[in-house]
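Journal club prep, notes for RB
We'll compare a predicted complex against what the paper describes. Inputs for the nickel (II) ion case:
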Amino acid sequence: MSQNSGLRIAVLSGLLTLLVGGSLSLAYSSGALFSSEPQSGLVAQSSLHHDDAQSQPSKVNAAEDKAQSASSQVQTPDPAPEPEPTYTPIPVEKVDCAVQKCVALTFDDGPHQDITPRILDTLRETKTLATFFQLGRQMEGNEAILQRAKAEGHVLGTHTWDHPQLPLLNDGDMRWQMDAPKDQSKKITGEQPTLIRPPYGLFNDAVIAHAAQSNDAVIMWDVDTEDWKNKDPQETTRRAVDGAHRGAIILLHDVHPSTADALPMIIQELRAQGYTLVTIPQLLGDTPAGSIHYSGALDE
Ligand code: NI
Protein backbone atom coordinates (compact mmCIF):
# COMPACT_ATOMS: atom_id res chain seq x y z
CA MET A 1 0.00 0.00 0.00
CA SER A 2 2.62 2.56 1.05
CA GLN A 3 4.89 1.34 -1.71
CA ASN A 4 2.04 1.86 -4.11
CA SER A 5 1.32 5.43 -2.99
CA GLY A 6 5.04 6.19 -3.05
CA LEU A 7 5.12 5.07 -6.63
CA ARG A 8 2.10 7.20 -7.40
CA ILE A 9 3.81 10.27 -5.93
CA ALA A 10 6.92 9.55 -7.95
CA VAL A 11 4.89 9.27 -11.14
CA LEU A 12 2.97 12.44 -10.33
CA SER A 13 6.06 14.48 -9.55
CA GLY A 14 7.70 13.14 -12.69
CA LEU A 15 4.71 14.27 -14.69
CA LEU A 16 4.81 17.66 -13.01
CA THR A 17 8.49 18.05 -13.83
CA LEU A 18 7.74 17.11 -17.40
CA LEU A 19 4.92 19.64 -17.61
CA VAL A 20 6.91 22.44 -16.04
CA GLY A 21 10.00 21.62 -18.05
CA GLY A 22 7.96 21.34 -21.23
CA SER A 23 6.24 24.67 -20.82
CA LEU A 24 9.52 26.31 -19.89
CA SER A 25 11.24 25.13 -23.02
CA LEU A 26 8.43 26.52 -25.13
CA ALA A 27 8.28 29.72 -23.16
CA TYR A 28 11.61 31.06 -24.25
CA SER A 29 10.25 33.16 -27.01
CA SER A 30 6.58 33.45 -26.35
CA GLY A 31 5.78 33.12 -22.69
CA ALA A 32 7.18 35.33 -20.00
CA LEU A 33 7.02 38.28 -22.31
CA PHE A 34 4.11 39.93 -20.65
CA SER A 35 5.20 42.24 -17.98
CA SER A 36 2.91 43.71 -15.41
CA GLU A 37 5.33 46.48 -14.62
CA PRO A 38 3.54 49.77 -14.08
CA GLN A 39 3.68 52.22 -16.93
CA SER A 40 6.35 54.74 -16.01
CA GLY A 41 4.53 57.31 -18.15
CA LEU A 42 1.84 57.71 -15.52
CA VAL A 43 4.33 58.39 -12.75
CA ALA A 44 6.23 60.90 -14.82
CA GLN A 45 3.05 62.62 -15.82
CA SER A 46 1.69 62.98 -12.30
CA SER A 47 4.96 64.34 -10.93
CA LEU A 48 5.08 66.75 -13.84
CA HIS A 49 1.60 67.89 -12.92
CA HIS A 50 2.72 68.42 -9.36
CA ASP A 51 5.69 70.53 -10.47
CA ASP A 52 3.37 72.62 -12.59
CA ALA A 53 1.17 73.30 -9.59
CA GLN A 54 4.15 74.31 -7.50
CA SER A 55 5.54 76.67 -10.10
CA GLN A 56 2.29 78.65 -10.23
CA PRO A 57 2.85 82.24 -9.10
CA SER A 58 1.83 82.38 -5.44
CA LYS A 59 -1.04 84.86 -5.70
CA VAL A 60 -3.33 82.50 -3.82
CA ASN A 61 -3.48 82.63 -0.04
CA ALA A 62 -2.25 79.82 2.15
CA ALA A 63 -5.68 78.25 2.57
CA GLU A 64 -6.32 78.17 -1.16
CA ASP A 65 -2.84 76.87 -1.69
CA LYS A 66 -3.50 74.08 0.75
CA ALA A 67 -6.80 73.26 -0.89
CA GLN A 68 -5.15 73.26 -4.28
CA SER A 69 -2.37 70.94 -3.23
CA ALA A 70 -4.89 68.64 -1.55
CA SER A 71 -7.02 68.54 -4.65
CA SER A 72 -3.99 67.95 -6.84
CA GLN A 73 -3.16 64.97 -4.67
CA VAL A 74 -6.50 63.29 -5.30
CA GLN A 75 -6.73 64.44 -8.88
CA THR A 76 -6.22 61.72 -11.40
CA PRO A 77 -3.43 62.41 -13.89
CA ASP A 78 -4.36 64.51 -16.86
CA PRO A 79 -5.75 62.07 -19.43
CA ALA A 80 -4.26 64.07 -22.30
CA PRO A 81 -1.46 61.95 -23.78
CA GLU A 82 2.09 63.22 -23.80
CA PRO A 83 3.03 64.65 -27.17
CA GLU A 84 4.01 61.79 -29.49
CA PRO A 85 7.63 61.94 -30.53
CA THR A 86 7.91 62.08 -34.27
CA TYR A 87 10.16 59.60 -36.00
CA THR A 88 11.82 60.08 -39.31
CA PRO A 89 13.22 57.52 -41.72
CA ILE A 90 16.75 56.38 -41.00
CA PRO A 91 18.87 57.82 -43.79
CA VAL A 92 20.37 54.91 -45.73
CA GLU A 93 22.21 54.75 -49.02
CA LYS A 94 20.69 53.07 -52.03
CA VAL A 95 21.41 49.36 -52.04
CA ASP A 96 21.93 46.89 -54.85
CA CYS A 97 22.39 43.41 -53.42
CA ALA A 98 23.37 42.12 -56.85
CA VAL A 99 26.50 44.20 -56.42
CA GLN A 100 26.90 44.65 -52.69
CA LYS A 101 27.54 41.92 -50.12
CA CYS A 102 24.16 42.03 -48.36
CA VAL A 103 22.95 40.34 -45.20
CA ALA A 104 19.61 40.83 -43.44
CA LEU A 105 19.20 41.13 -39.69
CA THR A 106 15.83 39.79 -38.56
CA PHE A 107 14.23 40.01 -35.12
CA ASP A 108 11.48 37.67 -33.88
CA ASP A 109 8.99 37.52 -31.01
CA GLY A 110 8.62 41.24 -30.28
CA PRO A 111 7.64 43.91 -29.92
CA HIS A 112 8.97 43.98 -26.37
CA GLN A 113 8.34 47.14 -24.36
CA ASP A 114 11.99 47.53 -23.24
CA ILE A 115 14.15 45.52 -25.61
CA THR A 116 12.67 46.56 -28.94
CA PRO A 117 13.21 50.29 -28.27
CA ARG A 118 16.84 49.51 -27.36
CA ILE A 119 17.24 47.61 -30.63
CA LEU A 120 15.62 50.49 -32.53
CA ASP A 121 17.96 52.98 -30.85
CA THR A 122 21.01 51.00 -31.96
CA LEU A 123 19.66 50.63 -35.48
CA ARG A 124 19.11 54.38 -35.66
CA GLU A 125 22.53 55.23 -34.23
CA THR A 126 24.22 52.92 -36.73
CA LYS A 127 21.95 53.85 -39.65
CA THR A 128 20.85 50.25 -40.10
CA LEU A 129 17.54 48.88 -41.38
CA ALA A 130 16.18 45.53 -40.22
CA THR A 131 13.12 43.30 -40.41
CA PHE A 132 10.87 42.41 -37.47
CA PHE A 133 8.61 39.35 -37.27
CA GLN A 134 6.13 40.29 -34.60
CA LEU A 135 3.61 38.43 -32.49
CA GLY A 136 0.04 39.75 -32.59
CA ARG A 137 -0.24 39.28 -28.85
CA GLN A 138 2.75 41.55 -28.27
CA MET A 139 1.36 44.39 -30.37
CA GLU A 140 -1.22 45.39 -27.77
CA GLY A 141 0.25 48.10 -25.56
CA ASN A 142 3.28 48.41 -27.82
CA GLU A 143 1.58 50.26 -30.66
CA ALA A 144 4.01 53.18 -30.49
CA ILE A 145 6.92 50.79 -30.99
CA LEU A 146 5.40 49.41 -34.20
CA GLN A 147 4.71 52.92 -35.42
CA ARG A 148 8.25 54.00 -34.65
CA ALA A 149 9.79 50.96 -36.40
CA LYS A 150 7.65 51.59 -39.46
CA ALA A 151 8.36 55.34 -39.52
CA GLU A 152 12.11 54.73 -39.27
CA GLY A 153 12.04 52.53 -42.34
CA HIS A 154 12.19 49.02 -40.88
CA VAL A 155 10.07 46.25 -42.34
CA LEU A 156 7.37 44.62 -40.25
CA GLY A 157 6.43 41.00 -40.78
CA THR A 158 4.38 38.68 -38.62
CA HIS A 159 5.14 35.64 -36.48
CA THR A 160 1.58 34.45 -35.66
CA TRP A 161 -0.56 35.65 -32.77
CA ASP A 162 1.06 33.81 -29.87
CA HIS A 163 3.74 31.50 -31.18
CA PRO A 164 2.06 28.12 -31.67
CA GLN A 165 3.43 25.25 -33.73
CA LEU A 166 1.33 25.91 -36.80
CA PRO A 167 1.31 22.35 -38.21
CA LEU A 168 -0.31 21.08 -34.98
CA LEU A 169 -3.34 23.39 -35.27
CA ASN A 170 -6.67 22.69 -36.93
CA ASP A 171 -7.30 24.62 -40.11
CA GLY A 172 -9.38 27.39 -38.52
CA ASP A 173 -6.90 28.07 -35.74
CA MET A 174 -3.97 27.95 -38.13
CA ARG A 175 -5.59 30.54 -40.38
CA TRP A 176 -6.48 32.79 -37.49
CA GLN A 177 -2.96 32.61 -36.06
CA MET A 178 -1.57 33.66 -39.41
CA ASP A 179 -4.12 36.35 -40.28
CA ALA A 180 -4.97 38.12 -37.01
CA PRO A 181 -1.51 39.69 -36.53
CA LYS A 182 -1.58 41.00 -40.11
CA ASP A 183 -4.85 42.80 -39.40
CA GLN A 184 -3.59 44.05 -36.05
CA SER A 185 -0.40 45.40 -37.59
CA LYS A 186 -2.40 47.13 -40.31
CA LYS A 187 -4.66 48.72 -37.70
CA ILE A 188 -1.62 50.12 -35.93
CA THR A 189 0.65 51.11 -38.82
CA GLY A 190 -1.74 51.43 -41.76
CA GLU A 191 0.11 48.79 -43.72
CA GLN A 192 -0.53 45.06 -43.86
CA PRO A 193 2.59 42.91 -43.56
CA THR A 194 3.27 40.46 -46.39
CA LEU A 195 6.12 38.51 -44.79
CA ILE A 196 5.57 35.76 -42.24
CA ARG A 197 7.99 33.69 -40.22
CA PRO A 198 6.39 30.57 -38.76
CA PRO A 199 7.33 29.98 -35.10
CA TYR A 200 10.13 27.42 -34.68
CA GLY A 201 10.41 27.49 -38.47
CA LEU A 202 7.63 24.91 -38.55
CA PHE A 203 5.29 24.74 -41.52
CA ASN A 204 3.49 22.20 -43.69
CA ASP A 205 1.66 22.31 -47.02
CA ALA A 206 -1.48 23.76 -45.42
CA VAL A 207 0.52 26.62 -43.90
CA ILE A 208 2.14 27.40 -47.23
CA ALA A 209 -1.21 27.21 -49.03
CA HIS A 210 -2.71 29.66 -46.54
CA ALA A 211 0.29 31.97 -46.79
CA ALA A 212 -0.30 32.03 -50.55
CA GLN A 213 -3.97 32.90 -50.00
CA SER A 214 -3.14 35.59 -47.45
CA ASN A 215 -0.50 37.27 -49.60
CA ASP A 216 2.38 36.22 -47.35
CA ALA A 217 5.84 35.06 -48.32
CA VAL A 218 7.42 32.68 -45.81
CA ILE A 219 10.76 33.96 -44.56
CA MET A 220 13.04 31.48 -42.81
CA TRP A 221 16.71 32.07 -41.94
CA ASP A 222 20.05 30.41 -42.56
CA VAL A 223 22.14 31.90 -39.75
CA ASP A 224 20.89 31.08 -36.26
CA THR A 225 22.56 33.12 -33.53
CA GLU A 226 20.82 31.02 -30.86
CA ASP A 227 20.60 34.23 -28.88
CA TRP A 228 17.60 32.89 -26.96
CA LYS A 229 19.75 29.99 -25.77
CA ASN A 230 23.20 31.45 -25.18
CA LYS A 231 21.93 34.81 -23.84
CA ASP A 232 25.54 35.91 -24.21
CA PRO A 233 26.37 39.00 -26.28
CA GLN A 234 29.82 37.67 -27.30
CA GLU A 235 28.50 34.27 -28.34
CA THR A 236 25.51 35.77 -30.14
CA THR A 237 27.86 38.11 -31.99
CA ARG A 238 30.32 35.32 -32.82
CA ARG A 239 27.55 33.14 -34.29
CA ALA A 240 26.14 36.03 -36.33
CA VAL A 241 29.51 37.05 -37.74
CA ASP A 242 30.91 33.54 -38.29
CA GLY A 243 27.70 32.44 -39.98
CA ALA A 244 27.40 35.49 -42.19
CA HIS A 245 27.81 35.13 -45.93
CA ARG A 246 26.51 36.98 -48.91
CA GLY A 247 22.70 36.77 -48.89
CA ALA A 248 22.46 35.51 -45.30
CA ILE A 249 19.30 35.93 -43.25
CA ILE A 250 20.36 36.21 -39.62
CA LEU A 251 17.94 35.20 -36.86
CA LEU A 252 17.80 37.25 -33.66
CA HIS A 253 15.10 37.93 -31.05
CA ASP A 254 14.21 41.43 -29.82
CA VAL A 255 13.16 40.15 -26.42
CA HIS A 256 16.51 39.42 -24.72
CA PRO A 257 18.73 42.10 -23.12
CA SER A 258 21.78 40.14 -24.30
CA THR A 259 20.64 40.50 -27.90
CA ALA A 260 20.31 44.26 -27.49
CA ASP A 261 23.80 44.23 -25.94
CA ALA A 262 25.19 42.23 -28.86
CA LEU A 263 23.68 44.30 -31.65
CA PRO A 264 26.24 47.15 -31.80
CA MET A 265 29.06 44.57 -32.03
CA ILE A 266 27.23 42.51 -34.66
CA ILE A 267 26.67 45.56 -36.84
CA GLN A 268 30.22 46.83 -36.40
CA GLU A 269 31.86 43.48 -37.18
CA LEU A 270 29.66 42.71 -40.17
CA ARG A 271 30.40 46.12 -41.64
CA ALA A 272 34.11 45.63 -40.95
CA GLN A 273 33.85 42.51 -43.13
CA GLY A 274 32.31 44.50 -45.94
CA TYR A 275 28.69 43.55 -45.47
CA THR A 276 25.77 45.84 -46.23
CA LEU A 277 22.90 45.37 -43.79
CA VAL A 278 19.51 45.35 -45.46
CA THR A 279 15.85 44.52 -44.98
CA ILE A 280 14.29 41.34 -46.34
CA PRO A 281 12.64 43.17 -49.28
CA GLN A 282 16.00 44.78 -50.11
CA LEU A 283 17.68 41.38 -49.95
CA LEU A 284 15.08 39.32 -51.77
CA GLY A 285 13.27 41.78 -53.99
CA ASP A 286 9.79 40.59 -54.92
CA THR A 287 8.66 37.65 -52.81
CA PRO A 288 5.54 36.07 -54.30
CA ALA A 289 2.82 34.97 -51.87
CA GLY A 290 3.42 31.40 -50.76
CA SER A 291 7.12 31.44 -51.68
CA ILE A 292 9.65 30.21 -49.10
CA HIS A 293 13.04 31.84 -48.52
CA TYR A 294 16.00 30.78 -46.42
CA SER A 295 18.44 33.32 -47.79
CA GLY A 296 19.05 35.63 -50.68
CA ALA A 297 20.40 32.85 -52.84
CA LEU A 298 22.97 34.62 -54.98
CA ASP A 299 25.86 33.14 -56.85
CA GLU A 300 28.98 34.14 -55.01
NI1 NI B 1 9.75 32.90 -32.34
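Talking point for the session: Strands lie at 102-108, 131-134, 155-158, 195-196, 217-219, 223-224, 249-253, 276-278, 292-293.
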